[in-house]
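[audit] Reproducing an earlier prediction to check determinism. Same input, same settings, fresh worker. If the tokens differ from the archived copy the diff job will pick it up downstream; this log only records the rerun itself.
[audit] input (324 residues):
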Amino acid sequence: MKKRQLTTAICALLGSAFLLSSCSGGSSTSFSSNWCANTAINTVVEGTSETLTYDVALDPDSAGNDAYSVHYSNGTYTTSLSAEQKNGELLYRYHTELNISVQYLFDGQYSEIKADKVITTVYFMSTKVGLQPVSSSKEVESRSPAVLTPTSLETCYTDYHFTVETEYQDNCTKGTCVYTDLTKEEAAETSSDFSIGDDYSYIDNEQLLFAVRCMSLSSSQQIQSYNASINGVQTVRISASDLKSDEFEFAINGTNSKRAIEYYPASVVISASNPGATQTAWIAKTTSATNNVNRNVMLRLQTPISYNLGTLVYTLKSANFTAA
């Protein structure tokens, strides 16, 4: 698989591309437990339970490719945060699932509707040690855009099915990533070792959007994260626009209502000469350090699709916040 194609597959689907910390010794980022009512909590809290559910749909006015188009339907994205024992240690477990149907249109011909999915799990520590990751896994099964200008319906997209497993060692100063291509009759496995520098705080790719909730967005932040498509650690820049306010309607712990919420539109992009797509996450502002009603929840996520095929929009529909 070409590395650029792998990047395309991840960016098109993840909404995910991709401290003070023992993972960093340079310009570290401070994190707060903004998913809690009391943001000062700095330990892993037994009994933690948070579930967020989003609708996912293509912005109908966002596409600009005249050669072909992609259509998404029945999109859902669910995240869950819990506390679990792993190797004798109580850790946070963050699990996400994206499911969406996809169909391509070229020259009046429609492809068969297929179900795309991305499933991720990451284990990490408390804010006291900077959300330090311990391990992560990801499975991607997708039909992703392949070219800017296809010559047939079949050349519009590429089928992917792969897993990525990452384990961290030596107090998160190095890691091992195993990529497995499941499209082949016999799964092809590639293992890569990588080192983690101390220029910035380190966050696993599968916890990146969660970590943005935990940052102060009054100024730009930079963190490090491993990118399996290039077999290396990259710097990711998070920059927030000015504070905004709007009305949002979603259920909190089973009660649906419309409410005015202040939020920061935060852009998330790789710091590189060819950074790829910029995701924009709308993060609710902290309401109070001791009574954080909206838990800095991600209200909306905008993820551009490759080759100017449009933007996927994730819209929060329900939030079951943890009791802490």
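[audit] rerun output stored. Observation attached for the diff report: Residues 1-25 have pLDDT under 50 and may be disordered.
[audit] end
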